[in-house]
Design brief:
The chain is about 65% helix and about 10% strand. By secondary structure, the protein is mainly alpha-helical. It has 6 helices and 3 strands; from the N terminus they run E-H-H-E-E-H-H-H-H. The longest helix has about 35 residues.
Length: about 190
């Protein structure tokens, strides 16, 4: 017996979109998750072993960078689970692949979380770069500034990587998880 599909709960998606949902999003999610897990380990280890570890603001920069890493991790996990929201079902035109809208819509929140790390970037650089450019002269630092080392440069680039991956996640994931009629038409 045929029961009509609830258009608020499911949307029909064309085969090309299904292929992209099942191939691209998990791959992007795996890369994002791996980078986020590496950041979750590297940020505290590097942050507290750099020459700026004595600065009180160093702890704030480590917390802000960890916040970005955790948001990126949530974004990656949301993309890893994206293929599970595609199922074979019936729609008014027949049978085919449908996207369950509720879990796909809920996943957009964590997906946007990775991109919202832009809020943390100015705070990170404010609290971390300030001691790099000026600090009080002392016995260990007679000139009042620190030399930028390779570790500091890598530590400064980590939040930018998190933000860039978060933006890529949103740019690719949003149209697939919240498809508009134009997006569905483009893939059909």
């Amino acid at each position: 017996m045929y029961t009509p599909m609830d258009s608020r709960a499911y949307v029909w998606i064309p085969p090309r979109m299904v292929a992209k949902l099942k191939r691209t999003l998990p791959l992007l999610g795996a890369v994002t998750t791996a980078v986020a897990l590496a950041m979750c380990v590297a940020v505290p280890v590097m942050g507290y072993s750099l020459p700026t570890q004595h600065s009180a603001t160093n702890g704030i920069s480590v917390m802000v960078a960890m916040f970005s890493a955790v948001l990126l991790l949530m974004s990656g996990v949301a993309l890893l689970f994206a293929p599970t929201w595609v199922e074979v079902g019936y729609h008014p035109g027949g049978s085919g692949h449908v996207l369950r809208l509720r879990p796909a819509s809920v996943s957009v929140g964590p997906l946007c979380g990775g991109a919202t790390s832009i809020v943390g970037l100015p705070l990170f650089y404010l609290f971390y770069a300030t001691p790099l450019t000026w600090s009080a002269p002392g016995p260990d630092n007679p000139h009042g500034y620190l030399q930028i080392t390779f570790g500091i440069a890598v530590y400064l680039l980590m939040p930018l990587v998190a933000f860039a991956l978060g933006v890529v996640d949103v740019a690719i994931g949003w149209p697939l998880l919240r498809p508009s009629r134009e997006t569905i038409h483009r893939y059909s």
